[in-house]
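Appendix B.2, paired examples.
Example (i):
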Amino acid sequence: MPAIQPEVLQREIEAMLEHVGEPGRFVRECMKLLEYYADRARRSGRIPAEVASERVLRVPRPVLRTLCAAIHRLGRGGEDVAWLELAQALWGKSYREPRLIAICMLREAELEDLPAMAGVWGEESDDPEVLRALAEEGLRPLREQDPEAYLGHIAAWLAADRRQALALHALNALLDTQAFDDFPRIFRLLQGSGGKIVRRANPIFRALMERLARRSPHETAAFLLEEIKREPSGAAKLVEWALADLPPRLQVELREARSRKK
């Protein structure tokens, strides 16, 4: 597609943000901007037919990054903006890109509003990219400012089938924070989960087990040994996912424990 002109894009975004006090108009202007850049990308022929989706506009990444950066600058400026109302209106458009922008806005909303909104959105989306952004970016303020509340909400989401994917993404985001090392807390949340996590969340659960195995191999192995005793069938896939990232001695120990339970 033709090169994006940063100064032109910035002017377009600034003009759009002038309407944050008018949710209806703001959403119309935002969608117009997203569709314009998506159309430019489509006309360039750079979007393969096999990745086309009726729920994805294929807006170029630099456009989304620039728009989110402008939203965060406005948020830091202390403007009195109804961020939650704007975010809900954009989320309702159902396409990936307006939902990613809605998540940027959620970060600027009041901290106490984040968990409830994130939980609802976690039920409404099956888009892995949107769910990952919701956990990593939308919930970032809660994760950084109140990690105890963050973990409490994860526990509740794990118990709700439609929110499990969000919960697992949120745990992955927490593990990517190198300062976090309360691994026993995570393992307590995951006790008995091998047979309870819905199938659609399996890829995220696998990524979580791989992260745990790399960051805390001995505690991960101890958790898996307990899961093998508790529920061998549910533990089997957890062992499979973590095994390659564990030291050889722990791999042998887990294989032997699993064999004894067959």
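Example (ii):
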Amino acid sequence: MTPPIKRLMQLLLLLLGCPALTLAQPRTLTFDRDSTGQLSATLAHHTLYRDGVRGTALDLSARAACRTPLVLDSMSFTANGKQIYGIALWVRTPAGALPGSAGAVIATNVDKTAKAGGFTIGASANGSWYAGFTDNNGNSLWYEPTPARQPLNDGRWHLLALTYSKRLDKARFYYDGQNVAIYNLNELGPINGRGKIRLGGADSTEWNAFNGQIDEFTLYDRIPTPEMLFRLYSSYYTRARLTPLPDSLAELKLMAFNIWHGGRETGAEVGPQRVADLIRRSGADVVGLIETYGSGPAIADALGYYLYLHSSNLSILSRYPIGRTYDFFHPFNCSAARIRVSKTQAIHYVNLWLHYLPDTQQQLEQGMKPDSIVGQEWTTRAGELKQILHDADSVGFLSGDVPTFVSGDFNSDSHLDWIRATRHLHRGYVLPWPTSQLMADAGFQDAYRVCYPNPKTHPGITWSPLIDAADSSALRYRIDFIYYKGPGVVPREVEVIDTHPIRYPSDHAAVVGTFDLPVHALH
């Protein structure tokens, strides 16, 4: 079809109202009186708060006589049969007010009785907010930030938003116009989104109704961009500004850190605080967390970082905005993202965890032959890494056109370490570990070994800070790595961190690398 005819057909289809070519428009529910000064029937018994974002707002606070949640019969989620949408609403809670020990639902379309999964946005008992998704079988995944960074009960209007894409199995969460978190939802089952939207509570009673005001509830039947949502926020807070990206970035600090059961082994609250303290002291810009296990939001908030939770195990924290995310191999083993670090630069980053079996110390104690040890590596760790590298390379993620980093807990050492000169450190073994060889074959360099090429003088041990160096019965070795590739990427310094001023919170040492970056235009 020639271009002029094609353009004519597009115009005719548009005039005829072809749904495929009609731009989706957001629908907004306001709580203002109509031109005659009358309220709609659904709001007839409700109290309005006069100082809304635009006009009046729905009042469900303690000052309202009627606090019954609203059911929105006319708003549907499956526009054109697609499970792609965005939700945004303005929320205000009286200063110091708390919703109760269980929190309070602000908006939801989850109906467990009808097995209808969907979204929920709520007020947390700690004074912040929460959001998440529930599948049709009642399983949920929650984003639960902290009041220190994301308060809700300060008497101010706040814009809360989320987006959902079934095709990508991803959700993004926004606080005051900023994309604070991205969640991968593929650990959940199907989400049909067929339930009716309810505002102000999870059911029709006032028992657990939201204690606050709601205004300008907007439903998008496409995914609004971060720019759209920030414009919505700044239309009310006109002085709001996003932190600008630097024009260019000369160096990047990256950390690989297995934080051990969410960092909670030294305390449910204290442990993650110590993890955040270590990250802050290191100056790391991008952090690959392993064994996140629910601590991601608190650690990200303590640092003021963006969060990408790819699975219960793996997450990425970043000082800079996280752009496109990728799915390679299994979510529990691998997370990946493109991160925009300046106006002219981006990086590709893979955070991974490889299987903890086979147990290397047990193999050595049994006197297993080197060939058998290497062979068993391929049944788990080496096989997993080979598939990760294949999946990433198949979409050009590892091309090296932009600085590319792979870090994480490999649960396996390096062929660069287990050499003849260090065999006395490894029960007499010389082993060509296949995981490190796979990384080398893929064009990656081991940042620690580039900076410290002698494994005898600089073993770089990361497993484990809990093992006494004088204990000769326990195997201490290097299993946490940062690899890199790309023209112009140079490791300037790599540090192994295994101490804390009070008590170190993990059984793994953290690895922090400082890299010089090439200054070039984005691809």
